[in-house]
Amino acid sequence: MRRLYVAQIVHTLDPAAPEATGVLVEDGRVVAVGDAADLRGTGVEVVDHGDAVLTPGLVDGHAHPVAGLELTDGVDLTDALDLDAVRALLAEERDRLAPGAWLKGWGLNPVVFGGRAPTAEDLGPAFAGIPGYVQIYDGHASIASREALALAGVDGPITFASSSRVDLDADGRPTGYLVEADACEVVEKVIPPLTIAEQVDRLRALLGGMAAVGYTGLHAMDFRDPAHELVTLLEEDGELPLRMGFNPMLMPEDDGPDGVLALQGQHGRRWRVEGVKLMVDGTIDHGTGWLEYADTHGEGLDALWRDFDRFRDAVMMLHRAGVNCAVHAIGDRGVRQVIELFVALREQHGPLARHRIEHIETIPDDVVKMFGSGAAAASMQPLHCTCFNRADRSDSWSQRLGDIRVDNGFRWSDIRSVGGVVALGSDWPIAPYDPRWIMADARLRRRFDRPEMEAIRPEQALDARQVLEGFTCHAALASGEEDHRGRIAPGYDADFTVFGADPLTTAPEELGTIEIRGTVVAGEAVVT
User: Fold this and answer.
1) 3-class SS string, 9-56
2) Is the pLDDT at 424 greater than 90, yes or no?
3) Cis omega before residue 429 (within 30°)?
4) Would the pTM count as exceeding 0.85?
5) What gap in Å lies between CA 73 and CA 151, rounded to an integer?
6) How are the residues of the chain apportioned to helix, strand and coil, as percentages rounded to the nearest 5?
7) Hey, which bits of 280-396 come out as E strands?
8) CB-based contacts of 409: which residues, under 8 Å, 6+ apart?
9) pLDDT tens across 461-510, in order?
10) How many Å apart are CA 308 and CA 300, to the nearest integer?
């Protein structure tokens, strides 16, 4: 059975046929594109979307759909921007807890601490006398209560293979502030986990919500347990509502790449392990972004991998094996080191794999130019800029960096101008996943729903076509799937997003709430 999708406009993003009104699909692939009247025929089922606009299916270029299930357990502190508000929400959550349960929170903005390192005591009396664990919004640090530290056996300094740390007071006692994954996981291991049934339900709801706002796929930057079990259970009940490409993590404490290499190619019907995620640094807010010179707190001079030669060796092994690497690099030195490595590997061994750098929050001109080499795609998340930072530089990110490096922040337009690939994503649950919001903010360099806000370096905004490309053809380029995804063309996967208005002509203030009339994956309607 052939199916013909009809719309007022079809933006194919295919240079050979940029616009059409009809797309003919068979067996999950595009067969033909052109004028709808020319594609109608006997035995063709017509799906007519009327005055809607059809585009290639949107893909979230960076999300944490499995890790985020636990990360978002507890009270949401995202909108609490002073300590009194944080303490009040924690107190309300504690009143709802069953006896013996953990007090948990997430999305905490470090701005509430006024530029100093937080402690368990800062979170108030609700956080005392009970096991408690609160995640900082970026997912790279947390605060554990005294009781939680005791349960985890944390009573002094701990040395890690990475630059993770347990913060200590003047007497050498842990304050509760845990920086980077290795330190956080010491406490996370003793927190009662969600059941598999709870995680299946949450993942089903998450993926359904993402499909409802137009996503047909996502690049998942983890494959931590129980990811394989969860997607397998979901596929036993039916099809996933979108495609998932997993990138298991390789961390400094791991013995080497053998473990992640063994996972490559594992797959179900709509999910696949297709790369490796590494982290060369942490975040600016916690002083763990790798910088060319120290931040205003005297921090930021270390890579996450204490032995950086081991990082180089691991990436070289992955490259020579043809495995795509997605490397978290935020600080200027971190990004420089990674892209120089990718350039060297390409020159020495050829383009054996498709690599990318995640986040890229501050870089100087000469590093921007390196993205024009094709050695790595830039994978960037606009809401990191518009939701957490301020044009007046009162946010903790700007205060840490200082003016010069803030001026070099979030250079989306500059990377595109040198011919670089810029894939866009959400980094859920660090930021909301709605692509309409992200596209709108990427064009405005501010929150689309807050017109009173001043734009942050507006010259770095993307135009309407660039943001659509960031979720479609550039997302495909970043993952090495450009030969079958990211465009609407014969032979490509029949993945489409159906907009109620044209995303290329809709004003950005309206784009954030534009109607999604349908989502199609492999030629089948997922959302109608």
Assistant:
1) EEECCCCCCCEEEEEEEECCEEEEEECHHHHCCCCEEEEECCCCEEEE
2) yes
3) yes
4) yes
5) 19
6) 35, 25, 45
7) 325-329, 356-359, 377-380
8) 361, 362, 385, 389, 401, 456, 457
9) 999 999 999 999 999 999 999 999 999 999 999 999 999 999 999 999 99
10) 15
How far CA 269 is from CA of 134, 226, 251, 521, in Å, comes to 36, 18, 28, 12
Q: Which amino acid is at 89?
A: L
Amino acid found at 328: H
Distance between CA atoms of residues 111 and 285, nearest Å: 9
Distance between CA atoms of residues 27 and 362, nearest Å: 44
Rounded to an integer, what distance in angstroms lies between the CA atom of residue 400 and that of residue 381?
20
The pLDDT-based confidence of 29 (bands split at 50, 70, 90) is very high
pLDDT tens digits for 339-397? Answer: 999 999 999 999 999 999 999 999 999 999 999 999 999 999 999 999 999 999 999 99
The pLDDT confidence band at residue 86, using thresholds 50, 70 and 90, is very high
Task: Report residue 42's pLDDT band, with 50, 70 and 90 as the boundaries.
Answer: confident
Q: Are 491 and 500 in contact (CB under 8 A)?
A: no
Q: What is the DSSP secondary structure assignment for residue 273, as one 8-state letter?
A: E
Beta bridge partners of 25: 3, 30
Burial 400-420 (b: 16+ CB within 10 A, else e): bbeeebbebbbbbbbbbeeeb
Question: Cβ neighbours of residue 68 under 8 Å, at least 6 residues apart?
Answer: 206, 428, 429
Residue owning tokens 């990718």: 342
- Angstrom distance (rounded) from CA 437 to CA 488: 23
What is the number of other CB atoms lying within 10 angstroms of the CB of residue 58?
32
For residue 83 the two structure tokens come to 């300590």
Residue 357: strand pairing partners? 327, 378
Tokens of 338: 């990674």
Beta bridge partners of 48: 6
- How many angstroms separate the CA atoms of 99 and 84, rounded? 25
For residue 528, the model assigns a pLDDT of 79
- Residue 129 confidence (pLDDT) above 90: yes
